[in-house]
Amino acid sequence: MAKVTKEAREAAALLVELLLAQKRRFQLNAREQALSPQQAATLWNLEPGGTLTMNALAEILMCDASNVTGIVDKLEARGLVRRSQGEDRRVKVLSLTADGESLREALRGRLLEPPEWLLGLSREDQRTLLEILRRGRAAEEPSA
Amino acid sequence: MAKVTKEAREAAALLVELLLAQKRRFQLNAREQALSPQQAATLWNLEPGGTLTMNALAEILMCDASNVTGIVDKLEARGLVRRSQGEDRRVKVLSLTADGESLREALRGRLLEPPEWLLGLSREDQRTLLEILRRGRAAEEPSA
DNA sequence: TATTGTTATACTCTATAACTATA
DNA sequence: TATAGTTATAGAGTATAACAATA
Are B133 and A11 in contact (CB under 8 A)? Predict the structure, then answer.
């Protein structure tokens, strides 16, 4: 367990502020596409050649598995997501349709658009920030 | 409008990942205190000597003003928040009670606790990160 | 007449429990 | 017996519209 420095605490506070702004963007973008937050989060987490199951999605969405049925039902009705049989015939594997993928890419494009404060930084600061975030991410998942 | 560099895009992508992790922490901490996400967000945004009105809170919570009545009702019933008359006698000003403030501080303490990836960074990286975030924040609000 | 906050209402989201079909 | 997903259902959250009090 690493020591909690004053720098770490202050940086964490600033990150929370930035993340609240980001949360706002996420909700607004979901609404624009007529997606509930959970539906948008589902698209966000699905890959085109998917391997995610209903239960795994429930874990990611932090909700009961029973809700995932309805969430996926609506996405499937809109032709964005497809359920297919897994090897174990109890499980269902989720994948994106072509429409689902293009909507997901639109969503990603908007959410990954760097916020103003980031664009306002010098190129040098941007590069340094990216390196530090990468190091932090690498430290967090030493094996995965 | 600043140029969107490759570094900025990649950094934005990493920040979105961090947001998702942070969202998880927020929901878990709220649940521990038997607070709905909106109730927790309300405490988070209220100051002890408050000036926030019901409408302003609705804006922050990104929900209809009619919901704020119920959210504040429950917090008031738990003795965490107080409604008082504004100068304009139509508006109600929200402030934290002593209990509300201590609960808010507990919440802040947990959410501002630096995540593992941040603690895993070198002291030098932490300091640099903090400086860059400060510069970004200063650039975002040139006047405020 | 416009605005702040509340109420009434219907719709959606969520969790719990019971059910099915596989294993 | 245990697990993946669904269904039924009740409770909480949400938006819309109508309302009271004040401006």
Answer: yes
